[in-house]
Amino acid sequence: MGNSENQLHCLDCANKAECFSHLSKNELTKVTDSKVSIYYNKGEIIRKQGTFVSSILFVKKGITKIYKEFDHAENVSIVDFRKPGQLIGLPDIFTASIIQYSVSALTDCEVCSIDIRLFEKLLTENGGFAVGVIKSINNQTSNTIDFHIQNNYKQLHGRIAHALLVLSKNVFESDVFNVPFTRRDFAEFTNMSSMSVVRILKIFRSDKLIEMKDGLITLLDKAKLEHISRVG
Amino acid sequence: MGNSENQLHCLDCANKAECFSHLSKNELTKVTDSKVSIYYNKGEIIRKQGTFVSSILFVKKGITKIYKEFDHAENVSIVDFRKPGQLIGLPDIFTASIIQYSVSALTDCEVCSIDIRLFEKLLTENGGFAVGVIKSINNQTSNTIDFHIQNNYKQLHGRIAHALLVLSKNVFESDVFNVPFTRRDFAEFTNMSSMSVVRILKIFRSDKLIEMKDGLITLLDKAKLEHISRVG
DNA sequence: TAAAAAAACTGATTTATATCAATTATTTAA
DNA sequence: TTAAATAATTGATATAAATCAGTTTTTTTA
């Protein structure tokens, strides 16, 4: 973890969140002045459940995971992931004062931290911005809710197939996961034991639905995975 | 189901959603003109998964349940509930064109239906309204996500205890459930079989944690229920 | 580069929970 | 008001998945 040397103006940020396009140059300058950009190494904790909400985070680079800790972090459920261009903490706006879920870096990450007071101020002053934020929130939370509702309805084979497809489509945006994603991550995302994950991934491999090499996962037969996701 | 005879002006609505307090008299008149108020009998379907999104609903009276249908509604997972003063369909705003979850009346209900185009127009024009809506969305979705994340982590006794507490606190707003809530509703809300629900409620009854009489459920020992919810 | 730690894997066993198959009670409808 | 339908209940049985206990492989660190 460390501060970024070059505090880029948000105007010049290549992959800023869609909602920021509704801000004026003046407003973006305010954001630039209030923000800090921070690097996190793979595995580092970005924010911690139970602490005070002070900022909205913007993922500039890397994949982050949002997770709920149980029993003093002995057990964990992964709630969702955030990738470049996405904001973290939107559901806290105007509501939560305590952070509900921890966030950590699944890969090396660069994250911008924006003062939540400023973010809320901009929302009240700029209706277009508010509309953009509503869009973001709705996309994020709808996906999260639907994933878990579906996941919990399925049996284990269906859960893994479903998770593979969702990760490919919504998170890694590729049929090849070039991201370190452990058996335990699968387990914590799908509510199952890591041993069961191992067993099912093995079956999927021998059935040529996926390939696993050098820590990379490749989806070979998405149609069959879709089918297992539905009926499994 | 039937139309309400008296189309009350939203200004005079006793329990309107908090966000409507940000609308001007003129804006509220527009809402009044566009809305229809409808009565639903217990059990009737209010909106159906898979159809087009055309409105935002406002619960004026009664309790509604939001649920996902699987396998042509042979199986169901209850996502959440909405009570008087709450809006239904907020996550569809600016995003979904197809309704993701069905909604039905758990009790006799009165529901206002507001054209979603008008709702979206008001959001772009009135920043205060947008802020109010963000608040509502965040409250609703945070509760929903957290309920299911917690539910799925727990074993069956914990699930029922947790569900009882959440229903009491967030939905029925009373330690006595004066609402018809079947074993099957419990099962569909907590992802378990209705036989398991029966067995666990029986244990809770004999342990004097709850009382069940005339279809009413009363929470007798919330402290113990909290404990079971945590460790169970 | 070796040692230590973490992750992946495997088979045997246990356990929580669903399913099955009835019976009884309660609603709803005719 | 009775018949029909739906919901609640119960015990016996089946089974999916977790846990346990270990081994092997991979990754990290010293």
Give structural notes:
2 copies of one chain form a homodimer. Chain A is of the alpha+beta class. The mean pLDDT of chain A is 93. Chain A has helices spanning 25-34, 116-125, 127-153, 156-171, 183-190, 194-206, 222-231, and strands at 2-3, 36-40, 45-47, 55-61, 64-70, 75-82, 87-88, 102-105, 109-115, 176-177, 210-213, 216-219. Helices cover 41% and strands 24% of the residues of chain A. Chain A is elongated and about 55 Å long. The first copy, chain A, contains 7 helices and 12 strands. In chain A, the strands form 3 sheets. Chain A has a 5-stranded antiparallel sheet with strand order 1-2-9-4-7. Chain A folds into 2 domains: 2-143, Jelly Rolls (Sandwich), CATH 2.60.120; 154-231, Winged helix-like DNA-binding domain superfamily/Winged helix DNA-binding domain (Arc Repressor Mutant, subunit A). Chain A binds a DNA duplex (30 and 30 nucleotides) through residues 155-156, 182-184, 192-196, 198-199, 202, 215.
What are the main properties of this structure?
homodimer, 232 residues, alpha+beta, Jelly Rolls, Arc Repressor Mutant, subunit A, 5-stranded antiparallel β-sheet, 4-stranded antiparallel β-sheet, 7 helices, 24% strand, elongated, DNA-binding
